[in-house]
Amino acid sequence: MLGAGSLGCLWAARLARAGVAVQLILRNPARLAAYQRAGGLTLVEHDQARRYAVPGQLTDDASPIQRLLLACKAYDAETAIASIAPRLAPGAELILLQNGLGSQEAVAAQVPQARCIFASSTEGAFRDGTAPEGEWRVVFAGRGHTWLGDSQDDTPPSWLSDLQRSDIPHQWSPDILSRLWRKLALNCAINPLTVLYDCRNGGLSDHATEVATLCAELDQLLQRCGQPAAAANLHADVQQVIQATAANFSSMHQDVALGRRTEIAYLLGHACATAQHQSLVLPHLAALHERLRHYLDARGLPSH
Ligand code: NAD
Ligand code: KPL
Questions:
Q1: Residues 203-236: pLDDT tens digits?
Q2: Can you tell me the distance from the alpha carbon of 231 to that of 271, in angstroms, rounded to the nearest whole number?
């Protein structure tokens, strides 16, 4: 497991609980020492905390890697994979848990000897930094599902049974790109506006025309990219998500509120870059991207 953050620790704890051999790869001796002082990972589920003594190791450990779960943010994925690339065994398998699009292909290009499996997850977890275990304590905040797939090869990997016995709800999905595009479109229609209007998801019902215009342009983009299934009923789905999550702050809103870098480049940035590449003019999406970039710049947050 490389990228021992919220989602990575959620996966590692459940795998360890089921007896699947898993190790955390940490990027430097200071982080490894801090992890060892914490005595392992703590997973909080239904208000019950349990610790799992998952072994830790450094990126430059000598042992070869056959199977790797990459769970860092999209903007860290290329650097993270470069740090362990020499350790990948021939035919190694990588599961890429990043949200958005763009990072997965960049990673796959870096490690042509490996099979890259893309994942899209609706599970929710966050690190409870206030606890004595600090960042090694992860709260399982939202039940969800994970779709996994390989657009180059439909064959499901044999280790899906490990996810089954670890109670990680999942499905092998030959149309993983469609799933990732659909999630990207939902995130583009909702998240930037919640940041710009500084509101919960439900607050977007006051901006219904703007949401509808963005959905129409996202629909055009998905059609042009050969993803018609990802475009089907997009606007209705966006409206339904806004209602169902009305009381929540979007993940991008939470990042900005906490002064954390967003994954803008792999969401709205990727949508706008793809439109440009396809010579497709989407003025509202481009203007939204520009407004969001200015907003982030003004707060000293990366806008790319
Ligand atoms: P996170 O910030 O909690 O964890 C990322 C971890 O990766 C951090 O611990 C960081 O130190 C580590 N990291 C970064 N670069 C590294 C490197 N070079 N070497 C070693 N470690 C490195 O992030 P997260 O919330 O777990 O999100 C991971 C991905 O999953 C994101 O793309 C996110 O959008 C997606 N996602 C998260 C959730 C969630 O609930 N947290 C849900 C669905 C999807
Ligand atoms: O995934 C989301 C997020 O906040 O990132 C939803 C709830 C779908 C809003 O776009």
A1: 999 999 999 999 999 999 999 999 999 999 999 9
A2: 13
